[in-house]
Design goal:
It is a single chain. By secondary structure, this protein is mostly helical. It has two domains: about 80 residues, no CATH class; about 120 residues, no CATH class. It is built from nine helices and no strands. The radius of gyration is 23 Å and the shape is elongated.
């Protein structure tokens, strides 16, 4: 490792530390961070004794590698946009939730996890899913004398696990694009673990309800 390499790593490390500080203390967002990353890249290029043309070429090469992932993220987002603009999300969620009221109460927490996982397929955003589903899940939990804490737990389980296999989840698709891993290859690798995790949280949601002390 040469002195240039060490200087570049030091600038990179200090840059990450300052970024965390700025995000926490100064509430930096995407616009500020975008300019900051460009600044750090230029400083690293200078520390590496690169010519301005070489720094610019390196930036273009990096952008070229990210373009594929960026396009995948955009395509993944289109499924959610179609559902939102078509105004069918509420109907889909209502159709998934209503059958829960006719099931044995002991199975409802686990099946609520399954329902939240299915909803996550059409609403990948965790905050958006909470806004849409919890006003439905909360009165359903009260009606079935189920703890609201368990309903929240089912939402948390359902929101996270299916992100491992979700083709509309921008973070997953972007990461696969950067790593040059085809989605079908990733799906074959991860679906057994996803099923194991779903079965586990299905049981945990039921246990959470059984060890509770009251409906609320």
């Amino acid at each position: 490792m040469t002195g240039r390499h060490k200087a570049a790593l030091i600038i990179f490390g200090l840059g990450i530390a300052f970024m965390i500080f700025a995000m926490l203390m100064w509430k930096w967002g995407i616009p500020q961070l975008t300019g900051y990353f460009v600044l750090i890249a230029i400083l690293i290029g200078i520390a590496s004794r690169l010519r301005p043309g070489q720094i610019a070429d390196g930036f273009v090469d990096g952008a070229r590698q990210l373009l594929f992932a960026a396009l995948l993220v955009g395509f993944a987002r289109t499924a959610q946009i179609v559902l939102e603009q078509g105004q069918v999300i509420d109907s889909v969620i209502n159709g998934l939730v209503q059958p829960l009221a006719a099931l044995p109460a002991v199975l409802v927490p686990g099946l609520m996890v399954v329902v939240q996982s299915l909803i996550n397929l059409v609403i990948p955003s965790s905050s958006a899913m909470a806004v849409v589903t919890m006003p439905i899940m909360t009165p359903l939990a009260d009606l079935l004398e189920m703890q609201r804490q368990t309903a929240v737990l089912a939402y948390q389980y359902g929101d996270g696990i299916t992100n491992l296999i979700l083709p509309s989840y921008a973070v997953l698709i972007g990461a696969l694009g950067l790593a040059r891993v085809p989605f079908n290859k990733w799906f074959r690798f991860i679906w057994p673990l996803t099923l194991i995790l779903l079965a586990t949280v299905f049981a945990l949601a039921i246990v959470a309800q059984l060890i509770g002390v009251g409906p609320f």
